[in-house]
Amino acid sequence: MTDKNLLRAIPKVDEILKQREWRETVALYPQGIAKDALRLVLDELRSAIKKGVVHSIPSLASIIDATKTRINLSTAPGIKRVINGTGVIIHTNLGRSLLAQSAIEALHNAACHYTNLEYDLDKGERGDRYTHCTSILKRLTHAEGSLVVNNNAAAVYLVLNTLAEGKEVIISRGELIEIGGSFRIPDVMKKSGAILREVGTTNRTYREDYEKAIQDNTALLMKAHTSNYRIKGFFHEISADELIDLGKTYNKPIYFDTGSGLLIPLLEVSIHHEPSNIELIEKGIDIVSFSGDKLLGAPQAGIILGKAPYIEAMKKNPLARALRPDKFTLSALESTLLLYLDREQAIREIPTLRMILEDKNVLLKRARRIARKVSERLKRVTVSVIFTDAEVGGGTLPDVKIPSCGIALKPHTHSIESFEQKLRALPVPVIGRIEKDTLILDMRTIIAEDETPLIDGLETALKDDT
Ligand SMILES: *Cc1c(COP(=O)(O)O)cnc(C)c1O
């Protein structure tokens, strides 16, 4: 048949709709969705014939099969589980931190049952949704007060708007950072109504620079952790101690956006010190804020710790209501924080910490086990165990590489680019990175439950050559 005749032979939508096979199989789906999917399948067939890649009309059964696949695709949730083989632990694009089991149970509880979210069980009256997290935060950090908001960007915004609207905030030029493309400290400051007073230079800022800028209209002395970059060499920043001293001398509050900050020391990996939120509060910083889903290993949230009057003022700000977290966040955050009562327990149960500190030999065993299974089961790929460098990610500990292990895959029947693309198109997509004609999967971010779908996925990706 010529292409023209072939095109004419494509069955019409209306004809297919009348067929018994169609009615029986797609009756299970909403009408409109099924018809749209069928149209798409026939459109694809048409363009495949025009391109000369299809030379015959498929059977009705296979058209219906293809339609069902399309329907399933178009009705499945867009947010899918993926396998993170990148070795970047707090991967912002892949959802940052995984949650501890107890946090998952808290989410489940909050989803399935009514809770005392805002109900005081002792008094039998309306309560405060923040008390749950506040009491554990107080035990852990000894901060007088705390407030949880939607994320750390919201925290920065709320702190500045509450304490410095229409007034000046002094910050070092070297700390006017951008995080992840859409969060820039100077932009958030502007929106909050605070007036930015930048001091020092990009690489060197001293106590005197802050001191000279202090005046009556100064509301806040601010410091931001340069989470995702590091200036090396000819560099000086104002220390927390100097800031505290300045604040006391001039009676101005100090705010430190630690970005991630730590609640427990991670000396094993931190070459450069991540600021310790607890230490800063103990030293007398008035306010700190940090993310829930970075090094804390909790859900997305912004945690503000500080002196009681400042926290009270923020709670009263009408914006607090707009930035407030929901019951899921608060439940999962509280459960994660409770794990920090015991450092060993935190490291054992919080996936982010566990991944950062996992012994390399455990990863080596995992890599060897997966490599062995792959080479036993799959013939169209060469697999080898390699040493890699994993990263904490999420804009934390930017130059800390964590020694890790992975597998390198070299497909025989696909180009490396098409293999990588096929892995991304799997029902459980596998995300790795290409390095010198091999696809690398780092074991530090691959969890036990990933092993079976990973190997099944590799098999599927290597199966057909189209
Ligand atoms: C990550 C980060 C933020 C933004 O926090 P989100 O929780 O992503 O909103 C703000 N400041 C610093 C210093 C950060 O590292």
For the structure shown, list the relevant keywords:
466 residues, binds pyridoxal-5'-phosphate, 18 strands, Aspartate Aminotransferase, domain 2, 7-stranded mixed sheet, Aspartate Aminotransferase, domain 1, alpha/beta, 20 helices, 5-stranded mixed sheet, 19% strand, elongated
Short summary of the structure?
44% of the residues lie in helices and 19% in strands. It is α/β, with parallel strands linked by helices and 466 residues long. The protein is elongated and about 90 Å long.
| Total domain modules | 3
Structural class: alpha/beta
- What's the CATH H-level homologous superfamily of the largest domain? Type I PLP-dependent aspartate aminotransferase-like (Major domain)
- Based on CA atoms alone, the radius of gyration comes out at 28 Å
* Named CATH architecture of the largest domain: 3-Layer(aba) Sandwich
Q: What share of residues are in beta strands?
A: 15-25%
Q: Portion of residues in helices?
A: 40-55%
Give me the CATH fold name of the largest domain.
Aspartate Aminotransferase, domain 2
CATH class of the largest domain: Alpha Beta
> Which small compounds were modeled alongside the protein?
pyridoxal-5'-phosphate
Instruction: Give the strand order, joined by hyphens, for the main sheet.
Output: 5-13-12-11-10-6-9
Shape: elongated
| N/C terminus separation | 23 Å
Largest sheet: 7 strands, mixed
Low-confidence stretches: none
Topology, number of strands: 18
Number of helices: 20
What do the pLDDT scores average to? 92
